Amino acid sequence: MLDKLQEKYGLTSFTLKMIGIVLMVADHTHEMFSYVGAPDWLNMLGRIVAPIFLFLAAEGFHYTHSRVGYLRNLLIGFWITNVVIMILQQALPNDHVVMINSIFGTLFLTIIAMWTWDSLKHPKQEPKRFAWGLLGLAFLVFGPVLALTLLNAASASQNMFLIILSSSVIPTALTVEGGIGWILLGLVFHIFRDKRWIGLTIFVIFSLFLLWQSAMHGFSDYQWMMIFATPLLALYNGKQGRKDKWFFYIFYPTHIAVLYIISTVFFAH
Protein backbone atom coordinates (compact mmCIF):
# COMPACT_ATOMS: atom_id res chain seq x y z
CA MET A 1 0.00 0.00 0.00
CA LEU A 2 2.84 2.40 0.85
CA ASP A 3 4.36 1.77 -2.58
CA LYS A 4 1.10 2.85 -4.22
CA LEU A 5 0.96 5.99 -2.08
CA GLN A 6 4.58 6.81 -2.95
CA GLU A 7 3.82 6.32 -6.62
CA LYS A 8 0.79 8.61 -6.51
CA TYR A 9 1.77 11.15 -3.86
CA GLY A 10 5.52 10.56 -3.63
CA LEU A 11 7.83 13.36 -2.54
CA THR A 12 11.29 13.89 -4.04
CA SER A 13 14.22 15.01 -1.91
CA PHE A 14 13.86 18.49 -3.46
CA THR A 15 10.19 18.68 -2.42
CA LEU A 16 11.01 17.50 1.09
CA LYS A 17 13.77 20.08 1.34
CA MET A 18 11.46 22.89 0.22
CA ILE A 19 8.84 21.82 2.78
CA GLY A 20 11.57 21.82 5.43
CA ILE A 21 12.76 25.28 4.38
CA VAL A 22 9.26 26.80 4.52
CA LEU A 23 8.66 25.34 7.99
CA MET A 24 12.14 26.44 9.08
CA VAL A 25 11.38 30.03 8.11
CA ALA A 26 8.16 29.82 10.13
CA ASP A 27 10.10 28.53 13.14
CA HIS A 28 12.79 31.20 12.90
CA THR A 29 10.12 33.87 12.45
CA HIS A 30 8.79 32.81 15.84
CA GLU A 31 12.31 32.87 17.27
CA MET A 32 12.96 36.42 16.05
CA PHE A 33 9.53 37.89 16.76
CA SER A 34 8.14 36.01 19.77
CA TYR A 35 8.80 39.05 21.95
CA VAL A 36 6.30 41.06 19.88
CA GLY A 37 3.65 38.36 19.84
CA ALA A 38 4.55 35.88 17.10
CA PRO A 39 2.18 32.93 17.69
CA ASP A 40 3.44 29.67 19.18
CA TRP A 41 2.03 27.64 16.29
CA LEU A 42 4.95 28.88 14.18
CA ASN A 43 7.28 27.19 16.64
CA MET A 44 5.13 24.05 16.55
CA LEU A 45 5.44 23.88 12.77
CA GLY A 46 9.18 24.19 13.15
CA ARG A 47 9.43 20.95 15.12
CA ILE A 48 8.95 19.05 11.85
CA VAL A 49 12.09 20.55 10.29
CA ALA A 50 14.96 18.70 12.01
CA PRO A 51 13.84 15.15 11.15
CA ILE A 52 13.36 16.17 7.51
CA PHE A 53 16.90 17.53 7.23
CA LEU A 54 18.40 14.59 9.14
CA PHE A 55 16.57 12.18 6.85
CA LEU A 56 17.83 14.05 3.79
CA ALA A 57 21.35 14.02 5.23
CA ALA A 58 21.22 10.22 5.27
CA GLU A 59 20.11 10.27 1.63
CA GLY A 60 22.81 12.77 0.72
CA PHE A 61 25.45 10.66 2.43
CA HIS A 62 24.38 7.67 0.36
CA TYR A 63 24.35 9.45 -2.99
CA THR A 64 27.19 11.99 -2.70
CA HIS A 65 30.20 11.60 -4.99
CA SER A 66 32.52 12.99 -2.29
CA ARG A 67 31.87 12.48 1.40
CA VAL A 68 34.88 14.62 2.22
CA GLY A 69 33.43 17.40 0.08
CA TYR A 70 30.06 16.98 1.78
CA LEU A 71 31.66 17.37 5.21
CA ARG A 72 33.74 20.34 4.02
CA ASN A 73 30.68 22.18 2.73
CA LEU A 74 28.77 21.59 5.97
CA LEU A 75 31.70 22.78 8.07
CA ILE A 76 32.12 25.92 5.96
CA GLY A 77 28.37 26.54 6.24
CA PHE A 78 28.69 26.15 10.03
CA TRP A 79 31.50 28.70 10.17
CA ILE A 80 29.82 31.21 7.86
CA THR A 81 26.56 31.05 9.80
CA ASN A 82 28.37 31.59 13.10
CA VAL A 83 30.35 34.52 11.70
CA VAL A 84 27.14 36.11 10.40
CA ILE A 85 25.47 35.66 13.79
CA MET A 86 28.43 37.12 15.70
CA ILE A 87 28.67 40.15 13.39
CA LEU A 88 24.94 40.84 13.63
CA GLN A 89 24.86 40.55 17.40
CA GLN A 90 27.80 42.95 17.72
CA ALA A 91 26.56 45.45 15.12
CA LEU A 92 22.86 45.28 16.03
CA PRO A 93 22.39 44.13 19.64
CA ASN A 94 18.93 42.81 20.43
CA ASP A 95 18.33 41.65 23.99
CA HIS A 96 15.06 40.02 22.95
CA VAL A 97 16.63 37.50 20.56
CA VAL A 98 19.22 34.81 21.30
CA MET A 99 20.46 33.21 18.09
CA ILE A 100 21.77 29.66 18.49
CA ASN A 101 20.96 28.45 15.00
CA SER A 102 23.53 26.10 13.50
CA ILE A 103 21.96 23.14 11.77
CA PHE A 104 25.12 22.81 9.66
CA GLY A 105 27.08 21.75 12.75
CA THR A 106 24.46 19.13 13.59
CA LEU A 107 24.49 17.75 10.06
CA PHE A 108 28.30 17.74 10.02
CA LEU A 109 28.45 15.56 13.13
CA THR A 110 25.62 13.36 11.85
CA ILE A 111 27.55 12.65 8.65
CA ILE A 112 30.66 11.82 10.70
CA ALA A 113 28.53 9.43 12.78
CA MET A 114 27.26 7.73 9.61
CA TRP A 115 30.76 7.44 8.17
CA THR A 116 32.08 6.12 11.48
CA TRP A 117 29.33 3.49 11.64
CA ASP A 118 30.13 2.23 8.15
CA SER A 119 33.88 2.28 8.74
CA LEU A 120 33.75 0.17 11.91
CA LYS A 121 31.81 -2.71 10.34
CA HIS A 122 34.72 -4.77 8.97
CA PRO A 123 37.89 -4.28 11.06
CA LYS A 124 39.75 -7.27 9.61
CA GLN A 125 38.74 -6.92 5.97
CA GLU A 126 39.27 -3.14 5.86
CA PRO A 127 41.80 -2.18 8.57
CA LYS A 128 42.61 1.26 7.09
CA ARG A 129 38.96 2.18 6.90
CA PHE A 130 38.48 0.83 10.42
CA ALA A 131 41.25 3.12 11.65
CA TRP A 132 39.46 6.11 10.14
CA GLY A 133 36.30 4.93 11.88
CA LEU A 134 38.09 4.91 15.22
CA LEU A 135 39.28 8.45 14.53
CA GLY A 136 35.72 9.53 13.80
CA LEU A 137 34.47 7.85 16.96
CA ALA A 138 37.17 9.58 19.01
CA PHE A 139 36.12 12.94 17.57
CA LEU A 140 32.47 12.32 18.42
CA VAL A 141 33.22 11.12 21.95
CA PHE A 142 36.02 13.46 22.99
CA GLY A 143 34.82 16.55 21.11
CA PRO A 144 32.27 17.39 23.83
CA VAL A 145 34.93 16.83 26.50
CA LEU A 146 37.21 19.30 24.72
CA ALA A 147 34.37 21.80 24.32
CA LEU A 148 33.44 21.54 28.00
CA THR A 149 37.07 21.99 29.02
CA LEU A 150 37.40 25.09 26.83
CA LEU A 151 34.10 26.50 28.11
CA ASN A 152 35.19 26.05 31.73
CA ALA A 153 38.53 27.68 30.98
CA ALA A 154 36.79 30.51 29.14
CA SER A 155 34.38 31.09 32.03
CA ALA A 156 37.22 31.22 34.51
CA SER A 157 39.40 33.55 32.47
CA GLN A 158 36.72 35.45 30.50
CA ASN A 159 38.76 34.60 27.41
CA MET A 160 36.60 35.46 24.41
CA PHE A 161 38.78 33.46 22.03
CA LEU A 162 38.19 30.27 24.01
CA ILE A 163 34.45 30.92 24.12
CA ILE A 164 34.32 31.31 20.33
CA LEU A 165 36.61 28.30 19.79
CA SER A 166 34.50 26.03 21.99
CA SER A 167 31.15 26.89 20.43
CA SER A 168 31.62 28.37 16.97
CA VAL A 169 34.71 26.76 15.44
CA ILE A 170 34.64 23.12 16.49
CA PRO A 171 31.20 21.46 16.21
CA THR A 172 30.54 19.02 19.05
CA ALA A 173 27.47 17.19 20.33
CA LEU A 174 27.58 19.48 23.36
CA THR A 175 27.28 22.72 21.41
CA VAL A 176 25.37 22.06 18.16
CA GLU A 177 21.63 22.44 17.71
CA GLY A 178 19.75 19.33 18.87
CA GLY A 179 22.82 17.74 20.43
CA ILE A 180 23.32 13.99 20.64
CA GLY A 181 19.61 13.25 20.17
CA TRP A 182 19.49 14.63 16.65
CA ILE A 183 22.83 13.07 15.71
CA LEU A 184 21.58 9.65 16.78
CA LEU A 185 18.29 10.19 14.96
CA GLY A 186 20.16 10.92 11.75
CA LEU A 187 22.26 7.80 12.31
CA VAL A 188 19.08 5.73 12.73
CA PHE A 189 17.80 7.01 9.38
CA HIS A 190 21.11 5.93 7.83
CA ILE A 191 21.28 2.49 9.44
CA PHE A 192 17.73 1.62 8.42
CA ARG A 193 17.77 3.40 5.09
CA ASP A 194 16.86 0.18 3.26
CA LYS A 195 14.21 -0.69 5.87
CA ARG A 196 12.65 2.70 6.28
CA TRP A 197 9.69 1.45 8.31
CA ILE A 198 12.06 0.40 11.10
CA GLY A 199 13.74 3.80 11.16
CA LEU A 200 10.39 5.56 11.18
CA THR A 201 9.11 3.28 13.96
CA ILE A 202 12.11 4.20 16.11
CA PHE A 203 11.50 7.85 15.26
CA VAL A 204 7.84 7.62 16.32
CA ILE A 205 8.78 5.89 19.60
CA PHE A 206 11.35 8.61 20.30
CA SER A 207 8.74 11.31 19.56
CA LEU A 208 6.25 9.65 21.92
CA PHE A 209 8.93 9.55 24.61
CA LEU A 210 9.37 13.31 24.16
CA LEU A 211 5.58 13.69 24.38
CA TRP A 212 5.61 11.84 27.70
CA GLN A 213 8.41 14.09 28.95
CA SER A 214 6.51 17.18 27.83
CA ALA A 215 3.35 15.95 29.58
CA MET A 216 5.32 15.67 32.81
CA HIS A 217 6.11 19.39 32.53
CA GLY A 218 2.76 20.79 31.49
CA PHE A 219 3.28 20.35 27.74
CA SER A 220 5.69 23.28 27.68
CA ASP A 221 8.01 21.62 25.16
CA TYR A 222 6.78 21.13 21.60
CA GLN A 223 9.65 19.01 20.27
CA TRP A 224 7.48 15.87 20.32
CA MET A 225 5.51 17.41 17.46
CA MET A 226 8.28 16.34 15.13
CA ILE A 227 6.25 13.11 14.94
CA PHE A 228 4.18 14.85 12.25
CA ALA A 229 7.16 14.56 9.90
CA THR A 230 6.49 10.80 9.73
CA PRO A 231 4.01 10.82 6.81
CA LEU A 232 6.27 13.15 4.82
CA LEU A 233 9.27 10.87 5.29
CA ALA A 234 7.16 7.81 4.51
CA LEU A 235 6.11 9.36 1.19
CA TYR A 236 9.68 9.97 0.03
CA ASN A 237 9.99 8.19 -3.31
CA GLY A 238 13.78 7.92 -3.48
CA LYS A 239 14.07 10.44 -6.31
CA GLN A 240 16.18 13.59 -6.23
CA GLY A 241 13.91 15.89 -8.18
CA ARG A 242 15.24 19.31 -9.09
CA LYS A 243 18.94 19.89 -8.33
CA ASP A 244 19.84 22.76 -6.01
CA LYS A 245 23.25 21.94 -4.55
CA TRP A 246 24.10 25.38 -3.18
CA PHE A 247 20.70 26.93 -2.48
CA PHE A 248 20.42 25.80 1.14
CA TYR A 249 24.00 26.78 1.98
CA ILE A 250 23.25 30.32 0.81
CA PHE A 251 19.66 30.60 2.01
CA TYR A 252 20.26 29.41 5.58
CA PRO A 253 22.53 32.21 6.89
CA THR A 254 20.83 34.76 4.63
CA HIS A 255 17.32 34.22 5.98
CA ILE A 256 18.58 34.29 9.56
CA ALA A 257 20.31 37.61 8.89
CA VAL A 258 17.25 39.14 7.19
CA LEU A 259 14.84 38.09 9.95
CA TYR A 260 17.20 39.30 12.69
CA ILE A 261 17.76 42.68 11.01
CA ILE A 262 14.01 43.22 10.54
CA SER A 263 13.34 42.19 14.14
CA THR A 264 16.04 44.47 15.53
CA VAL A 265 15.65 47.55 13.32
CA PHE A 266 11.85 47.73 13.19
CA PHE A 267 10.65 46.15 16.45
CA ALA A 268 13.33 46.20 19.17
CA HIS A 269 13.24 49.27 21.39
TrEMBL record:
Source species, domain of life: Bacteria
Positions in coiled-coil regions: none
Keyword list, A-Z: Membrane, Transmembrane, Transmembrane helix
Membrane spanning residue stretches: 9-26, 41-58, 70-92, 98-118, 130-154, 160-185, 197-216, 222-239, 246-268
Record keyword Zinc present: no
Pfam families, per database record: TraX (PF05857)
Presence of the UniProt keyword Transmembrane in the record: yes
Protein name in UniProt: TraX protein
Species of the source: Weissella confusa
